[in-house]
Fold each of these.
Amino acid sequence: MSDTRIRAALAVVIRGEAVLLVRRANRPDAGLWGFPGGKLEAGETVAEAAIRELAEETGLTGTVRASLGTVFVDHVTPGYRLDAMLCDAPRGEPVAADDAEEAAWMPLADVIDRAIPMSRDVDTLAAKALEAIRTPRL
């Protein structure tokens, strides 16, 4: 049986002690903070989609650093398969666009502690991204 979930990419960007988040304007997470991201377009890789969505929703230019894994969202129909990519966006300040109502650098501690209203697994992916940045590769 094939997976009927919608395939999407997330751009997880950490700069210093802050993480880039957007407040969603549309369902299923309207009003909640989450990572820039969206559906893959035909023929697009996850990395390409993450970078495109980062630019569309925040105006920032970035590069993919590593995969952070996959999150499955099954509490809505249809479900989503979200592939999270750790990205670098070293310059500029975010400006909300596309389906993002706001875009901002949020303190990592607030995100990991779930001190703001956010989508599922944002805290987990932020912690995973921080660990990936702090752990040197062999």
Note: Residues 6-133 form a domain with the Nucleoside Triphosphate Pyrophosphohydrolase fold (CATH 3.90.79.10).
Amino acid sequence: MEKIAYVLVAASCGYLIVACWWTRSFFRNQDWQTQRSHGFAPPVSILKPVCGLDAGAYDNFASFLRQDYPEYEVLFAVSDPDDPAVAVIDRLRRDVPEARVSLVVGVRQTFANPKVSSLAALTARAAFDVLVISDSDMRVGPDYLRRVVAPLARPEVGLVTCAYRGVAPATLTAKLEALHMGVTFLPEVIVARRFLDMQFALGATLALRRSDLAQIGGWQAVGDYLAEDSQLASRIAQTGKKVVLSDYLVDAYLGHTTWQEQWHREVRWARTNRVVRPKEYTGIILTFTVPLAVLLLPLDPLGLWSWLVVGGALVVRWTTAWLIAEATHNRSLCRYFAWLPLRDFLSALTWCAGAGGRHVVWRGQRYRLLADGRMKPRAG
């Protein structure tokens, strides 16, 4: 048992070093995708499904209205006419009158996934062929559209997606979430890009042509799946087109996050990942370097080796985390590195919770996750 634990810790340290190397390599030459597609700037429809108000909602939305891009429109959708986001969007339309903004209110829930119902309604209203979809809690810079649309200049590219980093955490819970996003989840995405041939996508950004969406059967094809973004990527890849991970990092504005919100969100992600990619889910255990090292202590509590391994695991974890934060221009994250061991134990706990169960909570609503990744509203 002790030998197995040592092997797992060694493999986990190896994973951290390789993931760090690949992450730094990926972000070392930013703008390469844009440079290869200089001058490509087709009209774009930005689709924003909204439900309630996330932290910094006004500035999040406004960042999409202030793009350095020739021609684009921004379309928002809400299901409830009394949604507080309606007032924020109306204020934006007054504050930025030059922006082309539309709001669809009272979206009918045609699919089990309410986000996809909103996307279907927005796509029907969109004026342009290129669609860019982004979650409501994301914030971007003025060069965002140019960067994410650029890979679509190549006809063999069918979908562009972006990773994200957590910014402006105002509570300990939010700081822990920022650590997870920045130095755990982000390198996982880069590693998955290498091994899974980019047959997945992230809701932070989805950029695609309307014609490619139609080729896979439209939103109807993914409307009942919880992970509609990865379903979209998988189906587009099956048509022979490429899914590209952009080198643009979107900011997830965290603000105040409660323990319950974080727990529900991370368990939802974990259970979705387990259903969608069960083999890869088992491999996530290699990302828990510090928890794995601590497991050695009960096996040999007085042994010098076990304590040295724990210390070495901490050094490798903190060093690789710093190198990733530096490469992704997220050095402010280093202020929270004292909490990184706690974050890793919480990630291990979330992984354990995700290994079983099929019930998830999303935006206050309860759903049952089916074996094929589809979702059903849960009564009660």
Note: The chain has two domains: 2-24+265-349, 27-262.
Amino acid sequence: MSKINDFVIKFGNVNGSGSASANLMFAKSIFRMGIPVSPKNIFPSNIQGLPTWYEIRVNKDGYIARREGVDCLIALNPQTYQSDIKEIVKGGYLIYDNTMDRKFSRKDINIIGIPMASICAEHYDDPRQRQLFKNIICLGALSVLLKIDISVLKGLIKEEFQKKPKLIEPNLHALGLGRKYAQENLTSNFNLQLKPMKTKNKKIMIQGNEAAGLGCVFAGATVASWYPITPSTSLAEAFEKYVHMFRKDSKGKIKGAIVQAEDELSAIGMAIGANWNGARAFTATSGPGISLMSEFLGLSYFAEIPLVLFNIQRGGPSTGMPTRTQQSDILSSAYASHGDTKQILLFPSDPKECFEMSISAFDIADRLQTPVIFMSDLDIGMNDWVIDALTLDEKKNFDRGKVLTEKDLDSLEMWGRYLDIDGDGIPYRTLPGTHPSKGSFFTRGTSHDAFAGYTEDGRINAENLKRITKKFNKSPKYLPKSIRKNSKKDTDIGLIYFGSTTPAVDEAVDYLHNDGFNIDRLRIRSFPFDKILEKFIDDHKYIFILEQNRDAQMKFLISNELKKDINSFVSLLNFDGSPVTAQFIIKEFTLKIKGNKKIMSKVKKPKSAA
């Protein structure tokens, strides 16, 4: 039986072999056929020589989470042949370079050999070209097997190499070589098929870091100070690219500053200084950078200077797994810095929210005069996602918060930088140079009174901390709200999740519903938590919390902040560095619920969770 628009193809290759561009063109060709597609790039933390994989899931129903099992493996790395082949489902396909004879133990799969190296040796003299064009020859053969429109692939090659036009013709030639071989030799049935689909809305394919970098431009950010670290580097690079596209003066000079600092401390220090001076500035990092930046985060928190910090999470602890994904910086970010500090956190679920929330982050930071930490991860940040086209409300104005003008200062008899005039904990601030003689104050990280004067009076310091707490507690009104989705039938079962786990949850809940489980679900989008989350917990007897870390950090944060019994929550934890799958959620949920007779009495016997 054919699988039409519903399968997984995985490429196993070597880093630095030129496979990245060919893999992306393959994914884009499926996208341009209108078929929901979700590529996942699994790459090592070196430049060249180690194994790399590229998984592409095609699903006509729009399920885009990573899926377990491979329907077709393109095995181009002898180092990982044996382990990769184990992932192929029964009846699936193995495509390999049969220039050299290989023996495979699996008898329950279809094996297709293509002499890629021989074809390259026959047509290309340069050893490097032979390596690079092998990927394009493979792409050509796949286009025949899957019936991909050749004009789409030719167009993608021209786009990919438009800045290097000399490479267009050799790549087109390699594509043709692969197609010719497949047409002449691979005539047997290939049961994986692609058929064009119509899409309702305009779609784009984009990475989360790219979308966030673009969002920073439209948020009015003019300063980016950063230090390179995987997986956040591409965010700063995207910002720089879009600044050059959209923010140039009449003389062609960019209106902004992008600074690659000497380390993480300098990067966040520059961003804080720029915000203090009235600019909108940000920095981007990952877990190790959060550790290094924590003291400066305390300064921004206590001196009440706006700051946007992008934390693109990766596998930890320590250096950890720089090129794998996790959600393991929740506690280190929420309570970043020493002393009594709490930070605003935002949790985007896809590149569309990366764009939207990056814009909101600057408004929130200005309104609340505090750091805002944007909690993305490698899966969102560095993988391509298919989303609805990005839109911008051009009528929306920036919210700079409580900033006094020269006229405001002239009308005031008294002003104190940290006076709580409105009772919401948020003071009024001034920017340098606003007034020739009024509005200046001494910015300090030491204890201070309402007029920014140094004090060692413990009572005054305590009152100041209480005011900042008041501001923090009132902040949910400015933050993205939790999203609750109820089952069609009343249920005592609730599932809490956040961030990049969203697609897997959507798929798993649909499966479990068909299996007899009615599950309400809630997606957290910000911290501090809102009343929607509190009510959701109160409405359900059985709460499951899905997160990608070992220590159930979100469960701890919810319990600590909402004063809920931590033992009343059941954790579903995935922390192997791979994006979570619906199959993992189904298995873990089913395993942990089977022992609960109260829940099982309310559902029919579940099917096996394969």
Note: The longest helix spans residues 127-145.
